[in-house]
Design brief:
201 residues, mainly alpha, elongated
């Protein structure tokens, strides 16, 4: 006999994952207040009691989606730190790899990214934390000898977050640019400015 409230024959973890995916899509498209549990369960083809097996409320599922996004973003931002002893000729490619991973996450999990970076009331805090981590990374990279010590890394870090913020909406999610293309554009701009003759391949 299936547990009370769960669709007969369904796998519990599969149902939970499906509810998270559909809720993410609904919150991303309609916002928190306009999203209804009844819509989520209808699209998941489960009952409302099934929803409440896994989540106490609409707020609880929204908070879990926020936490999922925040956890992954923190990991990606921390992992973008350049290790010591890198050959400076590969720096542009190595920096681009870290940025590509962030944009790829935004591309593959668009609804989750919309929630965590735009819809959530804590989105501004998430961006501030991301900027702080970037700044910490950059200061370590200055100490490692990769970048000019006189640059204001707080400005660079906040500029990076701002570029990710706007480019995700205007270029990545519109399909105009890939994650890799955007990362290379940012690296070229930050490392070489707008000089016509210098581009990374």
């Amino acid at each position: 006999m299936a547990p009370r409230g769960r669709k007969k024959g369904s796998n519990g973890e599969t149902s939970r994952t499906l509810l998270l995916q559909i809720a993410a899509d609904e919150f991303a498209e309609h916002g928190y207040h306009e999203t209804k549990i009844s819509t989520i369960v209808r699209k998941a083809n489960v009952t409302q009691p099934t929803f409440y097996l896994y989540f106490k409320s609409k707020e609880a599922i929204f908070e879990e989606l926020e936490a999922l996004f925040r956890g992954k973003l923190v990991s990606l931002t921390m992992n973008s730190l350049l290790g010591e002893g890198l050959d400076t000729t590969i720096l542009p490619d190595r920096i681009a790899e870290g940025l590509t991973a962030i944009f790829q996450f935004f591309s593959e999990h668009r609804s989750l990214a919309r929630i965590g970076f735009y819809v959530s009331p804590s989105a501004a805090n998430v961006k501030a934390q991301m900027a702080a981590q970037f700044e910490s990374n950059l200061c370590e990279e200055v100490a490692a000898g990769y970048f000019h010590p006189n640059a204001d890394m707080a400005i660079v870090a906040n500029a990076l977050v701002g570029m990710i913020d706007r480019l995700a909406i205007t270029k990545l999610w519109t399909g105009e640019k890939t994650a890799q293309e955007l990362a290379k554009e940012i690296v070229t701009l930050l490392l070489h400015g707008l000089k016509k003759e210098i581009r990374i391949q």
